Amino acid sequence: xxxxxxxxxxxxxxxxxxxxxxxxxxxxxxxxxxxxxxxxxxxxxxxxxxxxxxxxxxxxxxxxxxxxxxxxxxxxxxxxxxxxxxxxxxxxxxxxxxxxxxxxxxxxxxxxxxxxxxxxxxxxxxxxxxxxxxxxxxxxxxxxxxxxxxxxxxxxxxxxxxxxxxxxxxxxxxxxxxxxxxxxxxxxxxxxxxxxxxxxxxxxxxxxx
Length: 209
What we know:
Layout: H1 3-12, E1 19-21, H2 23-30, E2 39-42, H3 48-52, E3 58-62, H4 65-74, E4 78-80, E5 94-100, H5 110-120, E6 121-132, H6 147-153, E7 157-163, E8 167-169, H7 177-193, E9 200-206
Parallel strand pairs: 2-3, 2-5, 3-4, 5-6
Antiparallel strand pairs: 1-8, 6-9, 7-9
């Protein structure tokens, strides 16, 4: 994660929520995997997504102390850690790992991160990655490269599907005023046109037994 991104996320974590997700979106994310078992929410932020997952239990981690305080106050068990520097849990600790809108904030050296995701996931466990889809006209960030090969090299069976994620950013003032004014008409038009269309993809892999 670069300095500018880290600063932005720390600033957003000072609000009551980073993103306000539509209830249908949280149900959609939860429904990507059934019978989750012990679940890890990577880069859990303020805990909104982790608390929507029906794992038993769900544990989150993030680098932002402010976010983690919010998540903990909401009732999500959390630890502080930076995903780009290793995951502070034992090998084979989780049945399911969720990683939602995290990878595009990190540097593009995916090998160490995927090695850690694989390490903490039990044999037969499920890995769920949700990222902006560059094929969508409304996606603001290109999808990270080389995701499917990372799973294939480790022998995962996986599928990729389009998914619509509806979320309102808590603080838009982080963008310059000229930027917001210039983009507003286009953003409103695109939001109207693509409001029900997929703007992200979900990559769901199963670790070999």
